[in-house]
Amino acid sequence: MKTVQELVNEVDIRVKKLVEIFAFILKYKILLKGTGLDFAGLREYVPGEDDAKRIDWTASLRTQRLLIKQFEEERDLDIFILLDTSSSMLFGTQKYLKSEYSAIIAGVLSFAALETGDNVGFAMFNDKVTKFLEPSQDMSRYYLMLTLMVDPENWGGGCNLAEALKFLLEKLRERTILFIISDFIGVGEGWEDSLKMISAKLDRVFGIMIRDLRDTYLPKGAGYMRFRDPFTGKVKTVNVDKVRKKFEELAKRQEEHVEKTFLSSKAAFIKIYTHQPFIEPLIKYLQMSEEYA
Questions:
Q1: Comparing 60-69, 167-176, 265-274, which segment has the lowest mean pLDDT?
Q2: How confident is the model at residue 292 (pLDDT cuts 50, 70, 90)?
Q3: pTM of whole model > 0.90?
């Protein structure tokens, strides 16, 4: 894993643009389920500064001036990040291991949320919740998260997403936006029902699937390769050319199952590969998230 400073540098490179978008989305409660803000009045539209979507066309037509709706800003929101630290996350064939890539995303989200003035909480889980930080606005929370994420001792083991979600169901209050960051490989049984329950309670739930290319696709013409089960440690030699098509079909089916489960639970979902930049897809994902509310 990277050092804390290396992780800070990675976050700094990516975070500025996300902070701006995240601040707007949270300010106007685009991520929340039908809560909205209190209407405070109208003011004249400022081109280049205001979002044209907020123009009140009825009032504008009546006054012959472009007017936008103003809202009272609310600040009583928790952003909570649940990070999968099981053994399958320690895999990577690209620049980053899935664990490193996930840590960067978690760092960016937490920093952006703290910059907008919201509370940030954090938990790490494998077959149980191993670390839990109560939501707080203190920027020291961000550095504590980074310290936990770069510690190799906090990574490895099995995976039980259902238990982690049940744990959070008891801990988190309703006005919470939950980000679940995982490869969703070997996450155990019963997590689908747990996801539905926590999604029904919280304002919003987001699934961020982190995948390495080799989680989904195997190389053509590779011949025999050795594979190790991340959870049991067992090693097996496989003729990749014979199993490649079946492997990719199963991987696609599993990914589709995870996505359908999130969407049927009224939660949002995105898949990101570790060789791809994530800021632009993440921004687009957040901006479109109201479709799932």
A1: 60-69
A2: very low
A3: no
For the chain, give the mean pLDDT. Answer: 85
Percentage, residues of the chain above pLDDT 90: 52
Residue 245 lies in a domain: no
The answer to whether the beta carbons of residues 169 and 194 sit under 8 Å apart is: yes
Whether 59 and 95 share a structural domain: no
Contact between 15 and 105 under an 8 Å Cβ cutoff? The reply is: no
Can you give the residue range of the structural domain that contains 55? 38-72
Contact 25, 286 (CB under 8 A): yes
Interval 256-280 mean pLDDT: 93
pLDDT for residue 39:
53
Q: How far is CA 203 from the centre of its chain?
A: 15
Task: Please indicate, yes or no, whether residues 172 and 205 belong to a single structural domain of this protein.
Answer: yes
State the DSSP string of 62-107.
HHTS-EEEEEEPP---EEEEEEE-SGGGG--SSSS-HHHHHHHHHH
Mean per-residue pLDDT, 173-179? 93
CATH number of the domain within which 121 lies: 3.40.50.410
Token pair listed for 276:
């791809």
State the Cα–Cα distance between residues 216 and 142, nearest whole angstrom.
32
